[in-house]
Specification:
Strand order of the largest sheet: 3-4-5-6-9-10-11-12-13-14
Helix content: 25-40%
Radius of gyration: 21 Å
Order of helices and strands: EHHHEEEEEEHEHEHEHEHHEHEHEH
CATH class of the largest domain: Alpha Beta
CATH topology of the largest domain: TIM Barrel
Largest sheet: 10 strands, mixed
Shape: globular
Bound molecules: iron/sulfur cluster
Strand content: 15-25%
Distance between the termini: 24 Å
Number of strands: 14
CATH architecture of the largest domain: Alpha-Beta Barrel
Low-confidence stretches: 264-273, 372-391
């Protein structure tokens, strides 16, 4: 079987070229062809020898997910539905703003965690995406957007970058697909590929605590937590992974993550700087009418997070068919934010984008037609996931 080169980061490519008896710098050359030039034809990689091009064509391929549809919202938000086989499709959303372009990337076809307010959770779970399918979403977006002059934007390094920020916040729990997600993020960070800074790459998790610690060690990027509740009883109902990793454990992991950025001593180790790119964690809090949006909830949230350097991102709920929840009124969102601000916290309200194409936060559903990996042993798999295993 041919190897998909989009599955390989710099280290993987270097190992491949070592096996082919080639020098390690070939990895950098090919990364640039793949991710900066968006090239899919080995014959056009003109700085490789003809013999190497032929050997690559015989043993490798370059294959990103196929685009099924690409609706565009009135506010300019784009959504791509990308096929990942067997009738399943994932969604990727691009949100253009004046000073940046943010791409929201999916990490799984569906999701097994079943957060109560999330359209993806209602779809069921099919499988983890491969590295090629994860980084392929950025590969696809850059190829499309680069041809559109309105998205011309120079990165901090002076290189054109229509996508300036990536958030791992689409379909799926990224830390339940740790290895593939980290490999994809390493490609995103690589100067020979997309050259994103760690501050502009955010991973959002519902809170798989051991994987947060692993992320801190292996690929520290900006961290966001889907918090959504100020106490365990409510969070157990909204974000079921909380039953395995309750708030006390989750907040301690957040503290360790931030401490790493500050160079604080970790678990008796000597003074060190692990390099987490931001000295705060972002807590996402979806505002659900009559569920988690009272003044008391806000006060409890302030008390809960008093020891963790953090910012709050309040997200007005975006409804989807059969959700059962209602968005909090604007006045209550404002009052909630005022309480956080009054306690000296930074709190913003996320502007809803792309809701007319179901591209807003919490609305991504893709297409999970093949749930065969979920039906026979769903309870067992959930148990395995809750015990920290990758699915
Ligand atoms: S919010 Fe995230 S973790 Fe929860 S069900 Fe949706 S995709 Fe999965």
């Amino acid at each position: 079987m041919k190897i998909n080169l989009l599955d390989l980061d710099a280290q993987g490519l270097a190992e491949l070229f070592a096996e082919l008896g080639e020098r390690p710098f070939r990895a950098r050359q090919v990364l640039r062809w793949l991710h900066q030039a968006g090239e899919t034809n080995f014959a056009r990689m003109t700085d490789l020898s003809k013999g190497l091009r032929e050997r690559l064509a015989a043993s490798a391929l370059i294959e990103a997910p196929n685009c099924v549809s690409q609706p565009r919202a009135q506010d300019g938000t784009r959504k791509w539905l990308l096929s990942v086989g067997r009738g399943n499709a994932i969604e990727t959303v691009f949100i253009p703003e004046e000073n940046r372009g943010t791409l929201c990337i999916s990490s799984q076809a569906g999701c097994a965690l079943e957060c109560a307010f999330c359209a993806t959770g209602r779809q069921g779970f099919n499988r983890n995406l491969s590295t090629a399918e994860i980084v392929g979403q950025l590969w696809w977006a850059v190829r499309v957007l680069s041809s559109e002059p309105q998205h011309a934007r120079l990165g901090e390094d002076g290189v054109p970058r229509p996508v300036s920020n990536v958030v791992m916040m689409g379909m799926g729990e990224p830390l339940a697909n740790f290895d593939n997600v980290v490999r994809a993020m390493r490609i995103m960070l690589d100067d020979h590929a997309y050259g994103l800074s760690r501050r502009r790459l955010t991973l959002s998790t519902s809170g798989i605590v051991p994987a947060i610690d692993r992320l801190r060690e292996e690929c520290p990027v900006a961290l966001a937590i889907s918090l959504h509740a100020p106490n365990d009883a409510l969070r157990d109902a909204l974000v079921p992974i909380n039953r395995k990793y309750p708030l006390r454990q989750l907040l301690a992991a957040c503290q360790r993550y931030v401490d790493a950025s500050l160079g604080v001593e970790i678990a008796g180790a000597k003074w060190q700087r692990k390099g987490a790119p931001r000295d705060f964690v972002t807590f996402e809090y979806i505002m659900l009418d009559g569920v988690n949006d009272s003044a008391q909830h806000a006060l409890d949230l302030v008390a809960l997070t008093r020891d963790v350097p953090c910012k709050f991102n309040l997200i007005p709920f975006n409804s989807f068919p059969g959700s059962g929840f209602v968005r909090s009124p604007d006045s209550r969102v404002r009052a909630f934010r005022e309480i956080l601000l009054g306690a000296g916290r930074v709190a913003t309200v996320r502007k809803t984008r792309g809701d007319d194409i179901d591209g807003a936060c919490g609305q991504l559903a893709g297409r999970v037609q093949d749930r065969r990996t979920r039906r026979p042993g769903r309870a067992l798999r959930r148990e395995r996931l809750l015990s920290g295993e990758q699915l």
